[in-house]
Structure to design on (548 residues):
């Protein structure tokens, strides 16, 4: 049975659609479950505040759902979008887009659930600060979506860029690597950013007057936590835009694929580790707000050390791309 | 979908070099600088005890960032670095917000702007470090904990520049790509204002603040 080019591209777009929403469904569901669990847990202590807690829980879950919705949008586009059908490369771009959007939704989905759950708890402890806590939760959870937004951007770039002039070898691997790099590297930072946000919400419940140092430390903490997601995004952009010469051997292709894997997996650990650092630092900012600067500085130095393995991955990925 | 990667360029051949200028970025940066100068002029022209709106906004910026700078550095150094931090934030905020207006592009959507600002912050932080600690104490820190860690420490410092500039660039450029693609998909109905509100105003504010605070904290890590 001979299969023509358009059929292959069609098959690839369906495969990408499945991968995207399949992986994307993992994170948001876990995060929302965590939020609901925390809300139910605290509800038994404060049954009178059920309305307020339910409202915060639903708002928090809606934010956590965003990551899943991004993956769903990419899936829909892959299923119902128009196929160009110029080269077979288009199929690989669709698979890469699915991987990027789907994998990157895992971390941010779980992560956005943490501040929401912590906000429900914080609300029960300190009902008078409900406005500040909700605002803090929304800021924390929205910034946690940044790695997922990087994944969506790479997915859109892969889907809508004109790749008819690019050589098939090694670009098939470059597209796959671009999807893997951003997608996998977004998992850790999304998860870790959520941890930092949850620390900030609980800290705010302990000391609502320290809102300014807490929000500042939270933004800096989430910002540094996302460094490895940014490295993954960087590698993806290089893979898509660098302009590789056509090659006859498989070697450059696999170097590019390896670069995607190196940066992708290398980004997971540092993201989670930095998130844990940030969470504990944020916890203390509420207790001793006058030492917030010292805590932020120590947190930043600690995060920089735990990021070093991510930097090794970045160096290896860059070397692989340059040697390809 | 052609706008996705389009860049307005001026090319210039000088002495055998092929120079490329991103016209849109340069024009938009100049517009933003002009707007900031106008704002500064109106805010300080007739300062009163009961402030006019312009003066009030300016006082708010100054007060907030003076407190933040004073907390991060000590009072004496804060006097020196406060103007940099405050104007950096105002420039970035206006840069990120201006994309909301039709036919306007954020200069921060161009990697050249953010990388330039990142390198500027890096140089200032290291200058401050060398000046307060002296060159030998500064250089010795790269050989901690053991001497062969030196290359990795240097790469770690350079990675900070990459992460700070790509964070801003990725968020703003990503936001504008998402707005472009989604607007195209829904034929410009209903969704675009909300997307502009989220990616332009909210994400723009937060990312401007994060960039400014990280520059400040990098300086504070170097001098302490």
């Amino acid at each position: 049975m001979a299969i023509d080019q358009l059929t292959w591209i069609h098959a690839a777009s369906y495969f990408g659609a499945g991968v995207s929403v399949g992986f994307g469904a993992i994170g948001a569901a876990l995060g929302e479950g965590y939020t609901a669990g925390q809300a139910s847990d605290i509800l038994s202590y404060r049954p009178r505040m059920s309305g307020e807690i339910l409202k915060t829980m639903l708002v928090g879950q809606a934010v956590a759902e965003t990551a899943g919705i991004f993956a769903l949008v990419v899936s829909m586009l892959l299923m119902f979008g128009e196929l160009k059908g110029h080269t077979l490369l288009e199929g690989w771009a669709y698979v890469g887009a699915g991987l990027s959007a789907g994998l990157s939704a895992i971390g941010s989905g779980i992560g956005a659930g943490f501040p929401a759950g912590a906000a429900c708890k914080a609300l029960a402890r300190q009902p008078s600060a409900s406005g500040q806590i909700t605002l803090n939760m929304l800021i924390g959870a929205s910034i946690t979506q940044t790695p997922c937004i990087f994944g969506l951007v790479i997915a859109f770039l892969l889907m809508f860029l004109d790749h008819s002039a690019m050589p098939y070898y090694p670009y098939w691997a470059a597209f796959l690597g671009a999807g893997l790099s951003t997608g996998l590297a977004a998992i850790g930072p999304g998860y870790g950013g959520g941890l930092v946000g949850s620390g900030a919400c609980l800290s705010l419940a302990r000391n609502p007057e320290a809102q300014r140092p807490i929000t500042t430390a939270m933004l800096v903490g989430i910002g540094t936590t996302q460094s490895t997601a940014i490295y993954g995004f960087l590698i993806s952009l290089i893979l898509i835009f660098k302009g590789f010469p056509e090659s006859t051997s498989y070697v450059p292709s696999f170097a590019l694929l390896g670069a995607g894997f190196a940066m992708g997996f290398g980004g997971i650990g540092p993201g989670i580790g930095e998130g844990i650092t940030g969470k504990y630092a944020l916890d203390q900012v509420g207790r001793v707000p006058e030492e917030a600067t010292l805590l932020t500085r120590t947190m930043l130095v600690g995060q920089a050390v735990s990021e070093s393995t991510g930097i090794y991955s970045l160096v290896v990925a860059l070397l692989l791309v340059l040697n390809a | 979908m052609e706008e996705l990667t389009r860049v307005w360029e001026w090319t210039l051949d000088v002495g055998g070099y092929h120079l490329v200028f991103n016209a849109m970025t340069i024009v938009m940066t100049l517009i933003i600088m002009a707007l900031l100068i106008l704002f500064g002029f109106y805010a300080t022209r007739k300062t009163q005890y009961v402030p006019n709106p312009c003066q009030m906004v300016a006082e708010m910026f100054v007060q907030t960032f003076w407190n933040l700078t004073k907390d991060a550095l000590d009072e004496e150094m804060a006097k020196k670095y406060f103007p940099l931090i405050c104007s950096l934030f105002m420039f970035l905020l206006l840069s990120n917000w201006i994309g909301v207006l039709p036919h306007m592009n954020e200069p921060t959507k161009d990697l050249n702007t953010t990388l330039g600002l990142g390198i500027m912050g890096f140089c200032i932080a290291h200058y401050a470090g060398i000046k307060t600690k002296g060159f030998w104490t500064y250089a010795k820190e790269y050989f901690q904990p053991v001497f062969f860690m030196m290359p990795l420490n240097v790469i770690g410092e350079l990675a900070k520049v990459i992460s700070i500039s790509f964070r801003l660039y990725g968020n703003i450029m990503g936001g504008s790509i998402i707005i472009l693609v989604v607007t195209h998909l829904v034929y410009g109905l209903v969704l675009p204002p909300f997307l502009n509100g989220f990616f332009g105003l909210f994400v723009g504010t937060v990312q401007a603040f994060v960039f400014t605070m990280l520059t400040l904290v990098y300086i504070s890590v170097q001098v302490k």
About this structure: The mean pLDDT of chain B is 87. Strands of chain B lie at 9-14, 17-22. DSSP finds seven helices and two strands in chain B.
